[in-house]
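### Sample
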Amino acid sequence: MNQGRIWTVVSPTVGLPLLLGSVTVIAILVHTAVLNNTAWFPKYWQGGSAVAAAPAAPAPAAAPAKK
């Protein structure tokens, strides 16, 4: 392990929960920022109307068979 000596300074029973807790807090903050700063997400939660599908183009008429 590259940084293995850190555990001679900080006990793993303290360091690991701090590390994992800080990663969790950062992930929650990033997700909250993304969800609060997008225009589509509040509409999604409110059940915004679905975008109407464009009408399908009529199928081209079959060419007459050659004899």
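The radius of gyration is 29 Å. This sample (Light-harvesting protein B-800-850 alpha chain) is used throughout the tutorial notebook.
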